[in-house]
Amino acid sequence: MSEGGLRRDAPWLALIVLMAISTVGFIDRIVVNVLVEPVKAEFGLSDTQVSLMGVAFTVLNIGVGLIIARIAERTRRMTLISVGTLLWSVATAACGVAASWIQLLVSRMGVGLGEAIGLPSLQSVIADYFPANRRGFAISILMLAPPVGAFIGFVGGGWIAENFDWRFTFLVAALPGLLLAMLAYAIVAEPARGRHDPGAGDEVPPLMDVLRRLTGLSSARNLVIGSALAAMLGFGLNYFFASLMIRRFELSIGEAGFYAGVIASLPAALSVVGTGWLGDKFGEKTPAAYALVPAVSLLLGGPIYAFAITRDALVPLLALISIATFLNFGYLGVTYATLQNLMHPRMRATASAMLNVVYGLASAGGPLFLGMLSDRMAQTHGVSEGLVIAMAIFGLAYAWAGVHYLLAARRLKADMAVTALRSGS
C-alpha cells in the first residue's frame, strides 16, 4: 500500500524515522537533567523545587495523551506524530528564552503537551508494520530512544552548557525535532490497521475494554506495575546523577554530563536490544520468557546499583553503575512489545496513552520523591552524602519491580492465549 507522493510503506524506514523522533522527544525531556545545577543556581532553588520541571512536563502530558490516543484509533497517526513533534520542539526552544522560573515551568508543560500529541501513536504504527513474532525486537529498536537520547542529552547538553550556557542548550535541542516532523509527514506511509492480526476487525473497542485488558489480566497488570516502578526509579536516578558527580567529585558540568550520558546510553542500549531479542527467541515457545528476562535483570541490577552509588572512588562507582544500568534497563523494550501483543490492534494507541499516564506520573514522581528524600537526608548527612543515601534507597527498590515481573510470568501464556481469541472474534 502506498499513500502516493514520497510516502513509502516500508517497515524499516518507518522504524528508523520513528525511532529518531522518539529519541529527539527523549532528548527534549531529559536534557533538563544535566541542567539541574545551573538552573538551580540561577533561580535559587532546592532539590525539591528543581525537580518540579519533571512535574510540569507531566501536567498536560498525561491527560491530553489519552484524548489524542482515542482520536489516533480512528485517524491518520503519522499526522498526529508530525504535529506533536513540531509542537514539543517549539516548546523546547521556549525553555531557552524563559525569563523566570514560572515561564520555564510553563514551557516544560508545552513540551509535555507536544509529546502527548505525538508519542502515543508510535508503538501502534510499528505494531502494524511488524508481525507479532518480530515486534519484540522492532519495539526494542524503537525503545533505543531513551538510552540514545540520554547520551545525546547528557553529553551534548553538558558540553553546550559548559561552553555556552543552559539556555542555548534548549535552543539547540529544539532543532532536530523541527526537521524530523516534516520528514515523517512527507515520507512515512500510514500502515493498514491490524494487517498482521487476521480477523481483528475495524471496530474501535470502548475505552473501558482497553482498561480492562491492562488491569484485568494478571500478567498485564503486573507488567504495568513493575515497569512503572522501574521507570519511576530510573527517572529519579538519572535526574540527579550528573548532580551527584558535581557535588561529590567536583566535576565540571561537561564532565558530569559526559559520564552520565555514557552510562545511561551504551549499557542501556545493549540491554534494550538484547532483552528484546531474547524475548522473541524464547517467547514464541515459552511466553513467560517475556517477563522472566526483565525479572532476573531487575532483581540483580537493583542491589548492584545501591552498592555502586555508595563507592567513594569515581572509577569503581562508574564501572559498577554501568553494570547496574545494563541490568535495570532490561525491562524496557520487551515490556512494551508484550503489552502491545496483549492488545486488540485498535486498542494499541489508547493502551500506549494509558501507559503514558502511568509512566508520566512515574517520570514526575521519581525526581520529586528522590529530591524530597535527598533534602531530608541532607539535614543530617550533608548535601552530597544525603543525595548518595537517597539514590541508594532508590536503587534497592528495583527488586520490588522485579517481583512484579515474576508474578507476570506466571500468567503470561494463558493471558496471551485468551487475548488472541478475543482479537480474532
TrEMBL record:
The entry's keywords? Membrane, Transmembrane, Transmembrane helix, Transport
SUPFAM superfamilies per UniProt: MFS general substrate transporter
**Which one of the record's GO molecular function terms can you name?**
transmembrane transporter activity
Q: Which domain of life is it from?
A: Bacteria
Q: Describe its membrane topology.
A: Multi-pass membrane protein
Q: Which GO terms describe its cellular component?
A: membrane
Q: What is its main location?
A: membrane
Kindly indicate whether the keyword Cell inner membrane belongs to this entry: no
Gene3D superfamilies, per database record: MFS general substrate transporter like domains
The protein's location, in the record's own words, is:
Membrane
Which CDD domains does UniProt cross-reference here?
MFS_spinster_like
PANTHER family cross-referenced by the UniProt entry: PROTEIN SPINSTER, SPINSTER
Q: What is this protein called?
A: D-galactonate transporter
Instruction: Tell me what gene encodes this.
Output: dgoT
